[in-house]
Structures
1.
Amino acid sequence: MTSPIIAVQGLHKTYASGHVALKALDLEIRRGEIFALLGPNGAGKTTLISILCGIVTPSGGRALIDGYELARDYRAVRSLIGLVPQELSTDAFETVWATVTFSRGLFGKPANPALIERILKDLSLWDKRDAKIRTLSGGMKRRVMIAKALSHEPGILFLDEPTAGVDVELRRDMWALVRRLREQGVTIILTTHYIEEAEEMADRIGVINHGELILVQDKVTLMRQLGKKRLTLQLQQPLATVPGGMNGYDLELGGNGHELIYTFDAQAEHSGIAGLLKRLDEQGIAFKDLHTEQSSLEEIFVNLVRQAR
């Protein structure tokens, strides 16, 4: 069995304020996999990524990145990693081409216009290559952030909440790009609190809450455990009736219209949850919380999503 590309042992972080962001975390990421870190806001996802990318110093523990000791071999580690952070931070007055090319140069890589062209085309940015960053939409700016992260050909790509606040088209483009990168041998670590995103893309899923890694499991196995017969969505706005465009799903209303309840076959190969959430998104039906019932992971899952509001 090949060695893990990332190996974390006893990693923990306590900030000066006394806030404990990570608690003695152990984790191994397999080479070439898509690993989704699932958890609510404040669970410790961004802190873990920031430590592994060298942005935040841990309070203790050890991290090996492709055999390099993070604390000792920072420069070597950083050259292996591409990071797409949550925040959109780009040079507003630079062109798309210039900012992506400059980002490659920061890592001491020689100029490679053909590579930059391919990256921009993969991200549907080629037509915008001469546009100033400040003129782009939020979705296009996020694509530029991904292009910058890929410009130095990293073997490991961190995507921190990559689809937060983006439209359905960009989300689908991003999923397709992530799969292509995996086919090229890139290891991808994705943080998200969207279950459908993890179900759609990940090979394995880790669940983090209150700075603790609660479980790590193969995606298929975990989704089978989470998908136990009944999914209840707490709606942002109450509904008078089940929407007419939701044919094919066994749905009913509860909680005086504030809950949408989905019943499904727990033994089926696909739970249908990802498709249901996509259909709700298309119809503009927002939910603020969700939980499953009759699940061996019910307590973990409910605790997870309750804090995602």
Note: The radius of gyration is 20 Å.
2.
Amino acid sequence: MAHNSCWRHIPKRFNSQYTSPPISPFSYIHVDALSDNRKEVIAKHLKELGPFPTYSNILNSQHFYQNTVLLDYLKKKPHPISLRQLAGYGNVLTKQKIVSSANFVRIELPIRLAMRIRDLQTLPFGVVNNYHLAQVYESYYHSFDAFRKIPQIHTIEENERFCKTLSTLLDDHLFNLSHLMMGALEVSIAETLPQRELDTFMSSMLRSRISRRVIVEEHLSLSENYQKNPYAKKPPHYLGEIFQNCRAVDHFNQVSEMAKESMSQSFPEIKQMPNLEFEGNLNCSFQFMVPHLHYILYEIIRNSFEATIETHAKKGQVQQSLPPVKVTIVDSKKEVLFRISDQGGGINREKLKLIWSFGKSPELARKSLANFHKISGLPLNSRINPATMPSSEKQNVGHMTSSSSSSSSSSLSSSSAASWGTHKHSTLQRLMDREYEHKLGMGLPLSSVYADYWNGNLQMNSIEGYGCDTALTLSKLGYHTNVVQLDRA
């Protein structure tokens, strides 16, 4: 009796209304994928579940002593910076501005990475030792250790090598978003962290990730522009190449077509998908990061389409027309408001409370994890490991950390430099490209973080039995460029 009583104090995040199926070692993996041979292969990796995985050059018995370097960086504070300050460098580009921007990024990245590494370290052992979160930790610490060793940048040639390193960083960190989301789902299954703490942790990690990537991509964009057209003067409200002028109606239509295409195979009996109907200011346009805008709109539109189809289209019956999804656009001086209204039957109050959380019931979390494994193109098994870095990256980091870097090899060609900030892969795009039936349950919580980061807001109101109104507010960045949102380190 005394033995069992100790379990009473373990916090449970979900009410007893959720019945959790028994947890097995392979509870979210499809049974067909687990032949006897496959189980033997998996068994060989059980030793990796210890505190110091054998594949890691960072997580070892000496890591405690190495951590004193991290603690020194935690004494430093990230430099508050507004979007206007960051983009202001681009009005008229000079050599000194490019070098100053490079050194800002060089100093800022290790400080911001150190803060998030410490957040991971202070999690309960059963959480931070989760495989996916351990991959994020490994990735962050490797980058922190590499970037803190880069010496001061003095010349354009040194900046070119620095840009190569930054570009590699963006590609190497692509898998972190997937690992964070999968780690949150596995934590939900194990119930090792209260839901509120899990949401706070995820929001902090995601906001910091956005901030770092904006800072890096902005510097790559400035360097690319300087290489192509130095000293060119930009318009007064220029924010940088990574921000594009977006006409709202065009982007809604583009995302709508993407959603219809992804759903067409799952609903082949539906000859005509729901259409969008617009009202309000149809000529509204604003500056924004297109990947973020598309992801937010995509998750909202796809949810509205799904609810409309499942509510109004009977199975096996061809429906000639379905109620449209109405989009109301309100264009004010400092922000734009979109109201997306559907007739998809609405959501009950209890479920409405849960859709904004990264924590799920164990049953739903297992289903989402199984779907993650079915998505093609997500680098779920990628790791950053100094021992296995490509020789080109080793050489690149070596150049940046050598004492003779200022006098080393000649600069990159302009055609090479032009590829720094373009054609970058996007985890958000891969998540949008996934097949419709691979539901993850993370779209709205993730969209809410992206909207909030840009001083916006995402809310949903529901009339059960009728439909939902989703209100998305986005601040016009040109009027909020003095807000130090990039300080969300």
Note: DSSP finds 18 helices and seven strands in the chain.
3.
Amino acid sequence: MPHKPFKAVIPAAGLGTRFLPATKAMPKEMLPVVDKPAIQYVVEEAAAAGITDILVIIGRNKNAISNHFDSVPELEVKLTEKGDADRLQRVMASSDMADIHFVRQGDPKGLGHAVLRARAHVGDSPFAVMLGDDLIDERDALLTTMLAEHERTGAAIVALMEVDPAHIGMYGVAAAEQTDDPDVVRVTGLVEKPKPEDAPSNLAVIGRYVLSPAIFDILERTEPGKGGEIQLTDALQELAADPDGPGVYGVVFRGRRYDTGDRVDYIKAIVQLAADREDLGPELRPWFKDFAAKL
């Protein structure tokens, strides 16, 4: 039978407390990264991988996200009248790239709970979970590789990245076995935010997952774990430990990733992306050098 089309789920119900007071009234997912909100990069990544049915999990005070992906006829008319075709195209792109749906999480009880809220929309389709804190450079393949690996194996697929052991306690961490592919490992266990001395490896789970609907039954019975929240990591651990199931595999990403969940890393992401832009880089790069020389 042909494979069902993939859907995508983007959890966006967090409060963004690390960016207060900027996120008091603005969703953290709408903070600009150069000239687009962070969440638009994630939607563009899904669309580029061929996923056009996207569900965003939102909470209170997140209406700005749905407004952003809606059309704004009065703005489009003004730009048309001015003959500003470039800005018109960019404005329309955000509402044309995919079919975007929204559901409320209600009481935020962790990433696993947010994913569970997608059950009715996802149905029996395989789906990607994409966290807005992690932006993947469009020049580096990740999601397409993960989708292909899921189709090949039927397993749950997580994105992994080698990180400094000193920072390993910030992530879910995978115990893994090598496969014939140097960029794909079989995950034998997962630990959420371990102490460095307890970490099974330096392979950290970053914000991309490809899952089958089987994950929902596991999440339904998953008890709150670290932080009193329902952890997706705990459900994946159960899949990894099942000797009769397809298991969990990890795609090791070695490309460019921008972490926008931390204030310093958010600023670094803006600098890196702006410096690489053809329209901004030629002016910015010499300025960066002069500025750095004065520090």
Note: The chain has eleven helices and 13 strands.
